[in-house]
Amino acid sequence: MKKTASALVLAGSLAFFGAGAANAVENYPAPVPGGVSDATVAPGATVSFSGTGFTPGEAIRIDVDYDNAPVVVPGAGVNGVIILAELINTFTTNADAQGGFSTDITLGEAGTYTLTATGLESGKVVTAVVSVDPSFAEGASSGGSDNDGDLADTGADSAMLLWGAAGIVAVGAGVASVAVARRKNA
């Protein structure tokens, strides 16, 4: 009985920690932050998005995602708010002789935009986040780049906790079935 319980505990632990490792692999390698002329702008403003490290002359796909307002998606199995991103623009540009690029992007309505540049040959990914704030329409401005949102996700999330709970339930079911089988045989 002790060997069986030990084996079940070991299997449950592997299921729990394996889910954490799978979650970590999903988010790596982390995207490389790109540069934007302004991290917060007024609606209708144009920002300059740039990055380096691409193959010289390489074609680069630029994706502009608009992070919509939070919504609850029924039937998704998640108790909470899900932020849906909408791809609003995709275009290509080419890297210069040094492997860099710079392109101007006009952002319309208020919200948060994620700019992603992907090298079509190298696979290199560069990202930047821009916030469009209506209060900046009155002439306020902010310089610099804010890339805190581009950090890799290293914490636990709900998927890891769900897999861990499933592992614990599986261990409990295994222990119960072994106990019942032993009582029937005795």
Automatic annotation (TrEMBL):
Transmembrane parts of this sequence: 160-181
Keyword Transmembrane found: yes
Protein name: Peptidase
Residues in the signal sequence: 1-21
Alphabetically ordered keywords of this record: Membrane, Signal, Transmembrane, Transmembrane helix
Organism: Arthrobacter sunyaminii
